[in-house]
Design brief:
alpha+beta; Pnp Oxidase, Chain A; UbiD C-terminal domain-like; five-stranded mixed beta sheet
Length: 487
């Protein structure tokens, strides 16, 4: 299902009882964030602040939408699907494109390539995102961006889909990076070292070229999800968006830069990064639950701001988990699980608990079939995309429910000899990792929480788990009321 506008998505949330409208003025500095934080942690609805206010009391003309993805139900509504599991296998089949080894495989691949191409974005002449256009004196402070936490360096744009191209290949990248507003015409573009956008900028700097960019906000809610998805190399994020919405994304060319953006976006900020021009960005209350420290990041110079006449500003707040990003990350885990299983078929399930803020803890159950199988999976995962930044990977047997923290803790703590079953390696870590001695590099630990075999050097008999017999369980179940235990 494709939404023609963010307004359509808001209307759908309203129709199914997943939206609360707030008419009273609420300040964009801290107040909206506090309300959103309380609501997300209590399982509340999406929120539409119809009169967001600046600290001076003046209200913005653009309403603010937040917590729109903060439940499995709302994620499914945003992506226009019945369930995440229903679309997962289809996405994996679509994206799992290997180099063909012979003419037969090439012929077999043609339908898949044709289907992928059918969802590629299409360029159109005009779009609603340019109904109002400010190119003479664009003002970032006209956007109701939030200051979320007291020590934040300023107001931040937190839910954009950011468009750039690699200067060498011309390949488009769509990423999601926080953006700190410095003044009316400049902002800090927080692209981590490992992001494709940062690679595009490094190559632009090496070539001595300015990198044109566009920051789009709103539009079909699938765009923000696609911008955050860990796609295989060479797959366009907008092709994934087109597949999920079952309709190609229509693009329009920006007014002042040579970048294309979805025509149905609500707000578009056009501009560029100048080679070597950096500025302190931060601090920022991050999804880790701590403030990420101020550091130098490229300066985004704004050349234009365009928008719909009836624009909505979509945003999010991150902080101590669980927050809205937990559901976005969870959707990615479930949608991309079949793709991971294609590469590591022994994997049964994967869970990244909210407390692990994605990169700190990954729990994986496997079908163990040979000695040190758990270690093979650890090292394979540390070699896969964003999983390479995982600080702690815990491997358990296939009968362990990785989503049950109590069961995982019991099984793992009872199955490990720390000296034998902890594996330490050094490697890249997330840019937000504050505990490592040096930025971007640190240690990781793998924990083999599986049952140990004699072939792995275990010289004793592994004990049996205490389980009541099925016969007794059935007998007691039938006589439960007879025992006076029906309450």
């Amino acid at each position: 299902m494709a939404y023609d506008s963010l307004q359509d998505f808001v209307s759908e949330l309203d129709r199914v009882g997943e939206l609360r409208r707030i008419a009273a003025p609420v300040e964009v500095e801290l107040e909206i964030a506090e309300i959103a934080d309380r609501c997300v942690k209590s399982g509340g609805p999406a929120l539409l602040f119809e009169s967001p206010a600046a600290p001076n009391g003046e209200c913005f003309k653009i309403p603010v939408l937040i917590n729109a993805y903060a439940s499995d139900k709302r994620i499914a509504i945003a992506l226009g699907i019945e369930s995440l599991d229903a679309v997962a296998g289809e996405v994996a089949e679509l994206l799992e494109i290997k180099p063909p080894e012979g003419i037969v495989e090439k012929v077999k691949m043609l339908p898949k390539l044709a289907r992928l191409a059918s969802f590629s974005p299409k360029t159109v002449g005009v779009g609603p995102c340019q109904e109002i256009s400010e190119t003479e004196s664009p003002d970032l402070f006209s956007i109701p961006a939030l200051k979320c936490w007291p020590e934040d360096g300023g107001r931040y744009i937190t839910l954009p889909h950011v468009y750039s191209r690699n200067p060498r290949t011309g390949r488009r990248n769509v990423g999601m990076y926080r953006i700190q507003i410095f003044d009316s015409k400049t902002a800090g573009m927080h692209m981590h070292l490992h992001h494709d956008g940062a690679q595009n900028y490094r190559e632009s700097v090496g070539m001595g070229r300015r990198m044109e960019m566009a920051v789009a906000l709103g539009g079909d809610p699938v765009y923000a999800y696609a911008a955050s998805a860990p796609l295989p190399p060479g797959i366009d994020e907008l092709t994934l968006a087109g597949f999920l919405r079952r309709k190609s994304v229509s693009l329009v060319k920006c007014r002042t830069v040579n970048v294309e953006v979805p025509a149905d976006s609500d707000i578009v900020i056009e501009g560029y990064l100048e080679p070597g021009v950096l500025q302190k960005e931060g601090p920022f209350g991050d999804h880790t639950g701590w403030y990420s420290l101020a550091d130098d990041y490229p300066v985004f110079h704004v050349t234009a701001i365009t928008r719909r006449r009836e624009a909505i500003y979509a945003t999010t707040i991150v902080g101590k988990p669980p927050m809205e990003d937990y559901w976005l990350g969870g959707a990615t885990g479930r949608i991309f699980m079949p793709l991971m299983k294609m590469q590591l078929p022994e994997i049964v399930d994967v869970h990244m608990p909210a407390e692990g803020v994605f990169h700190n803890m990954v729990i994986v159950s496997i079908r163990k079939s040979f000695p040190y199988h758990a270690r093979k999976v650890m090292f394979a995962l540390w070699g896969m995309g964003q999983m390479s930044l995982a600080k702690c990977i815990v491997i358990v047997d296939e009968d362990v429910d990785v989503h049950n923290a109590s069961e995982v803790a019991w099984k793992v703590l009872g199955s490990i000899d720390p000296r034998r079953d902890f594996v330490f390696v050094d490697g890249p870590v997330d840019a937000l990792e504050h505990a490592s001695d040096r930025p971007h590099i640190g240690s990781k630990v793998g924990v083999d929480g599986t049952r140990k075999w004699a072939s792995e050097g275990f010289s004793r008999e592994w004990p049996g788990e205490i389980i009541m017999s099925d016969e007794i369980r059935e007998r007691v179940t039938k006589r439960w009321k007879e025992y006076g235990l029906d309450g």
